[in-house]
Specification:
By secondary structure, this protein is α/β, with parallel strands linked by helices. The protein contains 8 helices and 8 strands; from the N terminus they run βαβαβαβαβαβααβαβ. It has an 8-stranded parallel beta barrel with strand order 1-2-3-4-5-6-7-8, surrounded by 5 helices.
Length: 247
């Protein structure tokens, strides 16, 4: 049976928040998972991260992490100083996750948010830079026991990975047991010809799944084809996490 989760920023607009409060809130509602932005981990002491882990364990909540990569740390950048800084930044986040027992990182963590200012006629140069970076990042993920899921998102949020097919092509170039695909119903609604077929395309490489309506509300307050989605998840035997990411 799939574990069910909620993204903390359903309640909070910023990264800084009382994480313990929302760990308890998620447990009281009946969720299995609380997902929150990974960036604040870098500002937390190791002891505080361990405290959050204990608070989550005490109420049976698993902590997972997501991020949208700031352009300052764009690992697809053609500027090598920015690219290398982004690699170090993400490696340090993964090391912080390990301290708190975190095993899942997902999101737009393979390129900076948005389209590069120096965008060329093809995204291949940025793709190549991202792949080069990820091959360095994934080594730390392997050492720390973290699964790194790259998210296919709509064209208005990145130009690099927009579909399940592109996500598969990307992880194929990384070739690691610790990399997978995150699909999100909101983004699939924009970019995929068929949501069900996109899930089947990801197949066994689907490592995380986000749900949200086409209007970014909670499931059931829109017209997303949930029956089709459920059938496709069953078809591929998906037994991973299902986390709501409404705003």
């Amino acid at each position: 049976m799939n574990k069910l989760g909620i993204f903390m920023n359903f309640w909070e607009k910023g990264w800084a928040a009382d994480h313990k409060k929302y760990i308890k809130k998620a447990a009281d509602i009946g969720f299995d998972i609380l997902e929150f932005q990974a960036q604040p981990l870098l500002e937390m002491s190791d002891d505080h991260i361990r405290e959050l882990k204990k608070a989550a364990d005490d109420v049976g909540i698993e902590l997972t992490y997501s991020l949208g990569l700031d352009r300052r740390y764009d690992v697809s950048s053609l500027d090598e100083s920015i690219r290398k800084g982004g690699v170090t930044y993400l490696q340090n986040i993964i090391r912080k996750m390990e301290i708190g027992g975190g095993t899942l990182l997902s999101g737009v963590s393979y390129a900076g948010w948005g389209t590069p200012d120096d965008m060329q006629d093809t995204k291949q140069p940025y793709w190549n830079q991202s792949v080069k970076s990820m091959r360095e990042i994934i080594k730390v993920a392997e050492d720390c026991g973290v699964t790194y899921c790259v998210e296919a998102v709509n064209r208005f949020e990145t130009c690099l990975i927009n579909t399940a097919k592109e996500a598969l092509a990307y992880i194929d170039e990384i070739d690691s047991k610790n990399i997978g695909v995150l699909l999100d119903t909101y983004h699939m609604n924009i970019e995929e010809d068929s949501i069900g077929d996109a899930i089947r395309t990801a197949g066994k490489y689907l490592g995380h799944f986000h749900t949200g309506e086409r209007n970014r509300k909670v499931p059931g307050k829109g017209h997303t084809p949930w029956k089709e989605i459920g059938e496709a998840l069953r078809d591929v035997g998906y037994d991973g996490h299902v986390t709501m990411e409404p705003f």
